[in-house]
Every structure is written in structure tokens, then in C-alpha cells.
Design brief:
Chain A has about 270 residues and is α/β, with parallel strands linked by helices. Helix content of chain A is about 30%, strand content about 25%. In chain B, strands 1, 2, 3, 10, 11, 12, 15, 21 and 22 form a 9-stranded mixed sheet that branches. Chain B has an 8-stranded mixed sheet with strand order 7-8-6-17-18-19-16-20. A 3-stranded antiparallel sheet of chain B has the order 4-9-5. The chains are: A alpha/beta (about 270), B alpha+beta (about 625). The interface of A and B includes residues 34, 38 and 246 of A.
Chain lengths: ~270, ~625
């Protein structure tokens, strides 16, 4: 028997991680150089959550899927032109600042308030999805804070799989140390699930899905509420990116064993 | 009425279909101009009945645009443009709104001498170089460069803009989509047009869930047929839709796509030092150069705000040498003393390349047909005398936009006759056409070398095209000359082959070393390997599940080919020496520059080169280009 689910996915947009990212400190605090210039993508872990949510909604007819995203409206619009081709959802945009440096509590407050105000959302049926990490920064607490503000106490992080049962309960696989999963059974919604990569491939671009989504996305963007995030006294002492080192050599006739040995040596040296 | 596709895909497959009013192939400046004209008019009066959809009555006009790249900001070009047409569309344009845009402040044209002695210069050029060196500072030779005392009027971009096309596209796209009238779908390659007889009835999107050869695999999803009352073809010089229309309907008598160039450039961040204020490289600075690293190679340097510089070269099809190792040549170019003194402490932020259709009016296709219109570079709009394409492309798009509005208001269908009377008539009466006429034969002399080329260009430029040189321009595949067989060159070829084998590098790269070009002193910051450049400031996107878009028509011809210029010119090293002598193609490295299409010296039919460049997904994903 299918369950009718109300799934809300919180997914931010981040600069394409393989662009040249350079931290700077501007008048409003730390940021990335030319961040508005860089192409943006849906935060990869949150994107996994969205695809899993769409698959779950498709298996349970009558379910609804909302995507809540906070970012500059113009950037959101641009990213949605790609995301909207992949799965069907209803966008709930929040026109806010770009970047991964605002205070997580402020961000969570705005997200929670927005989710509570979604017309037709029944919080007793709500599965709150998101990424357990972010490509912008690794604080990893925003989703948890949103859940707490919404009064959702069943929370799972590093989720790779969810199996919904007929009675509305579900089994969750969470990543734990040693490449293993912790198996939990939850009595049912509401719950928070912070996704790792999940098991689904990125859906293909489907123009018809895109067209259907756009009927609601563009009006939603036009009406996006503006959010200012309170810094809550948060200040950054320094911001830096992990060092990136790239040394390319052309090497011929090395055996796989030799290559492996060199890699081990290199990793050891690091 | 049934539609047939001109693509290689299986026609029997059940496909989704969708009906729209206007479908556009490709999103660049031309399509930007077209869509901006439509949306500007609609925004002025959304109640205008002309903008009611014919295919979905009661709804606004259904206008969709499909773009291959994964993002609308993935355009590859740092340009200088007079921006007349762009400013006409946006009279209150503030360049500060567009990242990396700045008004042109100063221009310079330089002839670069060869400080190394490896350049393949003719005797005449060597003599000229010698005289210039002797005259030295008296005539202004400095850092092995002679700066022309003035910039010829036809090259002048005074009052124009230095732009990043990636940023410009993003800016335009955001404005367009915010109106709600148009949708621009990135990551959606168009396989080809839908024909019904000679009428174009829309576009077919590329199949997904297929293997390299296009055969269905798991998750197969047949590309959708998008039926449109008007198909706007703005997919550039190597676009699948434009190529298919040219193949089916041919080109006007005497026209052909014979002249090409590959533009490759770096985006370099200048060092943040206190001397920058005294540097000539202030935002808005534009330098053009010629003479180095080879006489056939033209170069440019444009300064953006925020200490960013676009610096690059154009390698033309009339460079008959098969070793068109463009990436390495670009590295030699930036190390020329006249440039290196400013760039040497910089950091490479991104990199990109694209093919330019340089035939101008000689390559103009039929601009209109039943159900379709051609705009932009693929429609032959680039002016090769002024070295300008973006402004012209935008203008052709805007002209089509005005024409479409006129037809919509008159309730007339998009027939060839109606499109010719509105769009083509506007174009013929415009400055785009006058410029094209002046430029039509301006580059004829270059087939016989730089000196004759410059004379021809000056002749046409200074007389408004009334005078020019005459020449015969062979097809692009015949412009690649076989390696010389004389003993000296043959010896170099052997040495290069030995070096390539010993070093594990490409033959053409090794040949440059044998010819006397110094090895590149890689520093991991500004001078990086070509493979590392692929990962700098972006990445190559290759969504899984699409077929290879570079296909060798007759592998036997590849095996027999001794030059393999396709490998030398490949911007991303996506083409490499494969087994049995046939080049191997790696889609994951292809930046979709299209250079392989015209850098193939073989032809199976005397008309096409042996490389077919089809619709593909992805490409270089760098917003700073």
C-alpha cells in the first residue's frame, strides 16, 4: 500500500567546485572571489537527496515534493533550468545571499519559517531531506537545526538508502565508520534525513519534465521572498581552501604494481 | 504531415513530441539578440495579441531555446566589440552590471618580431624584421615589438566594450528568463532539424542513454521532437542544425565554408602589486598583434576589470603547415617579451577555445527557408575585416526578432517568402550587410602568406572594400599541405618521431621542439600542461549517456593520413594517436571547439572532411571565458 508523503528537500546552490575558488574578505565578511560570476550547481549531496526524494514520491502516488532553496534569485533561476529537467518538484525559493558563510542558525531559522508556511504541507507526513554535507562548507548542521526548529526529533545523517514499508515506517541505512551502514527503523514521518550519495544515478535531462516544472518555478521565483540572514555575532578569524597540488608527469611502461607503490609512497608523504 | 529527421538516430523509435511557437537552437549572442528583441517588445505590452501562442491558445507565445553546454555561462570567448547592436537593444546599458565588462579605453596594434628564431618566416619577412631591428628605437621597436603609430580605422573599437562572452551570456540569459516569456534549457544538445520536404518543422533533441556509437543502452531516452512554427538556427559555425540544413538544402551558388580559424585564449589574473597602477594594462586596454609565434598567427590581449586579462591567438586554416599545435603556440605567444613582462607573474585562471567561421559573406547560407531562419556566426555574419563577430551576430538576431514581431502582428506564417521580406530585407539594408560587403574579399591575400595578406587587407580596409586581391581559396581540407619530403624536413620529421616516442608526447609537439622552439618551462601556475589546463578554472563536462559527437567517416582515410592535423589542433587533447593509426576520441576531454571538423586533411566525398562533428552534450564549463 502506498503512503502519501510530503517530502521537503532543502538544497542550496554552490559554486561549481572545480572552478577556481579563492576566498576573500569583503565588507560583509568572508566570501569567494567573483562568486556571482562562477557557475553554480545544486549542492551535490542535496542533489542526491532530491533525486532520492523524487524516486520515493514516484513510488508513492499522491505524494508531494517541494524543493526549498535559498540563494540569489537570478542564480537560483539559472540552476533550476538544469535541475528542473531531471525530476518533478515544486520550488520554494528564498531570495537571499550567496555563499556558504552565513550563520547556520540564521539560515536554519529562515528555512524553517519558510517550510512552515508552505501551503498544503502537512508536517505530520513530512520527510525533511537534505545533504549531510555541503560543497560550500562542512559545518553540516543546518539541516539538523531546521529539523529541530520544526520539532522533528527523528534525525538520520549520512543516509544512503530508505525503504518505506506499507505501515508508513521505514528502514534507513546511515553511513558509519569502516565503510559500513547502521540500520535503523523509524516508526514513520516526520523525520529528517541528511543524505550522503544515495544509490541513484543522476536522472537524465527530460525536456517534458522541465516544461512541467517551469509552469510553477517561474511564478515562484517571481514571488520569492527576500531573506536577510542575521550574523548572530558570528565572525571568522580566517578562511582558506584546502591546498591543491597538481603535478603532471608523462610516464610510460610502468606496471600497475609500480604505480600503486608510487601512490602509496605519495600518500604516505602527505 | 509527418516529419523526418536528418539525424543519424533511428526514426522508428517512439519519441515524445512537443509543440511550441518558436524553437531556438543554441544560445549565444545572436540568439540573445533575437530573444531580447522579443522580450523587450512583450514587456512593453504583455497584452499585445501578437504574443498569444498559436499552439497553446490563451497562453503567451511558447519560446524555447536549447543549448548544448551545461550552463548558459559556458560561452568561450573574451571579446572586444563595438557593441552598437547590443547598446541599441539596451540603450541604458551599464557595463558595470556585467561582470568582466568594461568600455574600451585604448587600442594598439603590434607587429611582433621573433625573439627565438624558430618562426617559419619567409625571406621577405626576415628582411623586414632585419630592417626593423636595425632601425630599433628610432621607429619604436621595443621588446621585440613594433607598435603601429595608429590603429587602422577598420580595426578601431573605440566606444566599444571588452566582454567575457560567458558572463555576457549569463547576464542576458538571466534577464530573458526573468521576463517569463522564454525558456533557455542548458545541457540539451539538438541532434538536428525536423524536415518535411524542404520545410523545417522544428528540432530533434539528442538521444540519451546510448553508447558511444549511439546504440540504446540502459535508461535509453529518445530525444524529443520539438515541433515549432519557427525554428531559429543560432547554433554557431559547427552546430548540428546548421550543418544539416546546409547538407540538405545546399549553399547559395559560389558560397562555401572554406575559411576558418581556431581562437584559443587564457584568462590570466595579473599580480596584485603596487606597480599595476603604472602598467599600461589598465581595464579597457585592447592590443592586437601579428607576426608571432608564426607569421600566420594573430594575437590579442584584452584587459578586464579586477586585474583579469584575456590573451590569446587565432590559428587560421590558411596556415598550411600541418603542425597547428595551437596550445603550445599560445604558450610561446604569452612568453613574447612584449607581453611576458606584464604577464609573467600572473596566474592562469581559465582557458578556452572555439572555431571561428571566417568565410564571411562567402560562407553565408540561405538565411531563410520555410519554417526557419539563420542568425549569427553560422549565418556568415562575422566581419573578417574588422575582426568583429559578436556585434554582428547580435544585430542579426535583433533583426530577426523585429521581423518575427512584424509577422506575428500581421498574422502571417513563417514562410520563406515572409521571412525574406522581413528579416532578410532588414539585414540587407543594415550596417551588417554593408560591412560584410566591404570585408568580402579583404582576406584573400592570406592564402599566399602574411605579406600579401596584409596588403590585401589594407587595400580593402582603406577603400571600403572597393579594391581587393583576387585568389582561389581551396576547401579547408585541401589547405593542409602534406609534410614536405625534402631531405632536411624529412630529417626533422624523423627526429620528431624519435622524440615523440622517447618522450611520450605528441608528434606535432615534438616537431615544434625539433624546429627550434624551446621547451615550455612549466611552472604549475601560468605555464601548465594542456591536460592541467583542462582542469583549471572549470572543467570539461561530458554527461554520461550520450553518443560520441566526433565520428570518423572513413577510418581507412585516417589510417592513411600522414599529417593528422586533427590531433595537433585538438584543443583538449581529446584526439590522440590511437591504435592502427586511427585517431582515438575521448568525449570526456572534448571542449566542443569544432576544430577537428576543418583540421582534417582527408575527404571521403570531396565536399566534407573525414571528421563528422555531431551534436554533443557538455563541453568546457568555465564562466570566466
Amino acid at each position: 500500500m502506498a503512503n502519501i508523503l510530503h517530502i521537503v528537500v532543502c538544497a542550496g546552490i554552490v559554486p561549481d567546485p572545480l572552478q577556481t575558488l579563492e576566498p576573500i574578505t569583503g565588507p560583509t565578511g568572508p566570501g569567494l572571489k567573483n562568486e556571482m560570476v562562477l557557475p553554480a550547481v545544486l549542492d551535490p549531496w542535496a542533489a542526491s537527496a532530491l533525486y532520492e526524494a523524487a524516486a520515493l514520491a514516484a513510488k508513492n502516488p499522491g505524494s508531494k515534493l517541494w524543493l526549498v532553496s535559498l540563494g540569489p534569485k537570478a542564480k537560483l533561476q539559472q540552476v533550476m533550468m538544469t535541475v528542473a529537467q531531471k525530476v518533478a518538484f515544486e520550488l520554494v525559493p528564498i531570495d537571499g545571499p550567496i555563499g556558504g558563510f552565513p550563520d547556520a542558525h540564521s539560515t536554519a531559522a529562515v528555512l524553517a519559517d519558510t517550510i512552515e508556511a508552505i501551503p498544503g504541507l502537512d508536517c505530520t507526513k513530512c520527510l525533511l531531506f537534505g545533504g549531510w554535507e555541503s560543497a560550500t562548507r562542512g559545518a553540516g548542521v543546518t539541516l539538523q537545526l531546521v529539523g529541530e526548529r520544526l520539532g522533528i526529533t527523528d534525525q538520520f545523517q549520512g543516509v544512503d538508502q530508505i525503504d518505506l514499508r506499507d505501515d508508513g515506517s521505514f528502514e534507513v541505512l546511515e553511513r558509519v565508520e569502516g565503510g559500513k551502514h547502521q540500520v535503523s527503523v523509524c516508526a514513520g514521518a516526520p523525520a529528517v534525513l541528511g543524505w550522503a550519495t544515495g544509490n541513484l544515478a543522476e536522472p537524465r535531462n527530460n525536456p517534458q519534465v522541465g516544461m512541467a516544472n517551469m509552469r510553477t518555478i517561474m511564478p515562484a521565483l517571481a514571488k520569492a521572498k527576500v531573506a536577510k540572514l542575521d550574523p548572530n555575532g558570528l565572525s571568522y578569524i580566517s578562511v582558506s581552501l584546502p591546498k591543491q597540488q597538481r603535478t603532471t608527469r608523462v610516464v610510460k611502461d610502468m606496471t600497475p604494481d609500480q604505480i600503486a607503490a608510487e601512490l602509496v609512497e605519495w600518500i604516505g608523504a602527505e | 504531415m509527418s516529419a523526418e529527421a536528418t539525424t543519424t538516430e533511428t526514426p522508428e523509435i517512439d519519441r515524445q513530441t512537443m509543440e511550441v511557437d518558436i524553437a531556438c537552437a543554441g544560445f549565444g549572442p545572436a540568439t540573445g539578440g533575437f530573444l531580447s528583441t522579443l522580450t523587450n517588445a512583450w514587456t512593453e505590452n504583455p497584452a499585445d495579441p501578437a504574443f498569444e501562442s498559436r499552439v497553446a491558445p490563451g497562453m503567451p507565445l511558447q519560446v524555447l531555446c536549447y543549448e548544448r553546454a551545461d550552463d548558459i555561462s559556458s560561452g568561450v570567448s573574451g571579446v572586444v566589440t563595438q557593441g552598437r547592436a547590443i547598446r541599441a537593444s539596451f540603450p541604458n546599458l551599464d557595463p558595470a552590471e556585467i561582470p568582466m565588462a568594461v568600455p574600451v579605453k585604448s587600442e594598439r596594434v603590434m607587429y611582433l618580431l621573433d625573439p627565438i628564431g624558430a618562426s617559419r618566416r619567409s625571406a621577405v619577412l626576415r628582411l623586414a624584421d632585419k630592417l626593423l631591428r636595425l632601425a630599433g628605437p628610432l621607429v619604436g621597436v621595443k621588446d621585440h615589438a613594433f607598435t603601429l603609430p595608429w590603429t587602422p580605422a577598420f580595426l578601431n573599437k573605440h566606444g566599444g566594450l571588452v566582454l567575457s562572452i560567458g558572463q555576457f551570456n549569463q547576464w542576458i540569459g538571466t534577464h530573458l528568463m526573468a521576463t517569463g516569456l522564454v525558456q533557455i534549457w542548458p545541457g540539451s544538445p539538438v541532434a538536428g532539424p525536423l524536415f518535411s520536404g524542404n520545410k523545417v518543422e522544428g528540432l530533434r533533441l539528442a538521444d540519451q542513454g546510448v553508447d558511444k556509437s549511439g546504440a540504446p543502452t540502459d535508461g535509453f531516452m529518445a530525444g524529443m521532437d520539438v515541433k515549432a512554427l519557427l525554428t531559429v538556427v543560432g547554433d554557431g559555425p559547427v552546430g548540428a542544425v546548421g550543418q544539416a540544413i546546409d547538407d540538405k538544402l545546399g549553399l547559395p551558388a559560389g558560397h562555401a565554408h572554406r575559411e576558418w580559424a581556431l581562437g584559443m585564449k587564457f584568462v590570466i589574473e595579473l599580480p596584485d602589486d603596487s606597480n599595476l597602477a603604472n602598467s599600461p594594462l589598465q581595464p579597457g586596454t585592447v592590443w592586437h598583434s601579428f607576426g608571432y609565434p608564426e607569421p600566420e598567427i594573430f594575437g590579442f590581449l584584452y584587459v578586464h576589470p579586477e586585474r583579469l586579462v584575456s590573451v590569446g591567438i587565432f590559428v587560421p586554416s590558411w596556415m598550411h603547415d600541418p603542425s597547428r599545435t595551437v596550445y603550445r603556440y599560445l604558450q610561446h605567444y604569452i612568453q613574447h617579451p612584449a607581453l611576458w613582462k606584464y604577464l609573467k607573474d600572473g596566474t592562469l585562471r581559465s582557458w578556452g577555445a572555439k572555431s571561428l567561421e571566417e568565410s564571411g559573406r562567402h560562407g553565408e547560407p540561405f538565411l531563410t527557408g520555410d519554417g526557419y531562419a539563420r542568425i549569427g556566426e553560422g549565418s556568415g555574419s562575422t566581419n573578417m575585416l574588422t575582426g568583429s563577430g559578436v556585434d554582428e551576430a547580435w544585430a542579426t538576431g535583433a533583426q530577426l526578432g523585429e521581423a518575427v514581431i512584424e509577422l506575428l502582428r500581421a498574422g502571417k506564417p513563417f514562410t520563406q517568402e515572409n521571412l525574406a521580406a522581413t528579416y532578410e530585407a532588414r539585414r540587407r539594408a543594415s550596417w551588417v550587410e554593408r560591412g560584410a560587403q566591404e570585408a568580402e574579399n579583404a582576406r584573400n591575400g592570406f592564402q599566399d602568406g602574411l605579406v600579401k595578406g596584409m596588403i590585401g587587407m589594407a587595400l580593402a580596409g582603406l577603400t571600403g572594400g572597393k579594391l581587393s586581391l583576387h585568389t582561389h581559396i581551396p576547401p579547408a581540407h585541401k589547405q593542409i599541405r602534406p609534410f614536405a619530403a625534402n631531405s632536411c624536413d624529412a630529417l626533422k620529421l624523423k627526429d620528431a618521431a624519435k622524440l615523440a616516442i622517447a618522450d611520450g608526447r605528441s608528434f606535432h609537439d615534438a616537431l615544434l621542439s625539433v624546429r627550434g622552439w624551446p621547451e615550455i618551462p612549466f611552472d604549475g601556475r601560468l605555464l601548465v600542461t594542456q591536460q592541467d589546463a583542462l582542469l583549471l578554472g572549470g572543467k570539461v563536462q561530458a554527461m554520461p549517456g550520450f553518443a560520441d559527437h566526433v565520428v570518423f567517416r572513413n577510418p581507412e582515410l585516417c589510417i592513411a593520413c600522414g599529417e593528422k592535423t586533427c590531433i595537433a589542433m585538438c584543443s583538449g587533447q581529446a584526439l590522440t594517436q590511437g591504435e592502427n593509426g586511427q585517431p582515438a576520441f575521448e568525449r570526456e576531454k572534448c571542449i566542443h571547439c569544432g576544430a577537428c571538423l576543418w583540421n582534417c586533411g582527408q575527404s571521403p566525398d570531396g565536399k566534407h572532411s573525414n571528421i563528422e562533428f555531431r551534436a554533443g552534450s557538455g563541453g568546457l564549463h568555465s564562466a570566466e571565458n
